[in-house]
């Protein structure tokens, strides 16, 4: 069984492989018991969102890691992949701006992932 920290890192890696944008990791371990991490990112269009989702699912399944639940596959404007300890949210930018999920969980420690080989920033 993979630990939530390792799972979160694998998911971020798979998002970066498909050029996901504006990647945030919310550490919810001190905020709630529903999950350890939210990984939030944006795709530019519906096909990009689908490509990110497919890459995460396929590459993790190759490692024997299967998701528990998935939502939003039809519309591809907000896809949620639930790995229990880590929940992935892949948004279209307009949908992400509307729901402002990261603001709802502002009490969490937020890590902004830099995709251009820079170091990560930690907020809060």
- List SSEs in N-to-C order: HEEHEEEHHEE
- The CATH architecture classification is 2-Layer Sandwich
Strand content: 25-35%
Average of the residue pLDDT scores: 93
CATH class: Alpha Beta
CATH homologous superfamily grouping: Beta Polymerase, domain 2
Distance between the termini: 30 Å
Instruction: Give start-end ranges of low-pLDDT stretches.
Output: 117-122
- Tell me the number of helical segments per DSSP (H or I, 4 or more residues long): 4
Counted up, domains total 1
Structural class: alpha+beta
Any idea what the radius of gyration is?
13 Å
Q: Tally the beta strands.
A: 7
Walk me through what this model shows.
The protein has 124 residues and is of the alpha+beta class. The protein has a single domain, classed as Beta Polymerase, domain 2. Helices cover 34% and strands 28% of the residues. It contains four helices and seven strands, in the order H-E-E-H-E-E-E-H-H-E-E. It has a seven-stranded mixed beta sheet. Helix 1 packs across helix 2 (46-62). The chain is globular and about 35 Å long. The protein starts with a helix and ends with a strand.
How would you describe this structure in keywords?
124 residues, alpha+beta, Beta Polymerase, domain 2, disordered C terminus
């Amino acid at each position: 069984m993979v630990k939530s920290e390792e799972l979160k890192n694998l998911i971020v890696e798979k998002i970066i492989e498909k050029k996901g944008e504006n990647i945030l990791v919310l550490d919810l371990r001190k905020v709630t018991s529903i999950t350890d991490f939210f990984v939030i990112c944006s795709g530019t269009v519906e096909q990009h969102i689908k490509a990110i989702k497919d890459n995460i699912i396929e590459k993790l399944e190759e490692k024997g890691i299967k998701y528990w639940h998935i939502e939003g596959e039809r519309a591809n404007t907000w896809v949620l992949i639930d790995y229990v300890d880590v929940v992935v949210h892949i948004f279209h930018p307009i949908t992400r701006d509307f729901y402002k999920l990261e603001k709802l969980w502002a009490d969490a420690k937020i890590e902004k992932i830099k995709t251009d080989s820079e170091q990560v920033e930690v907020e809060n």
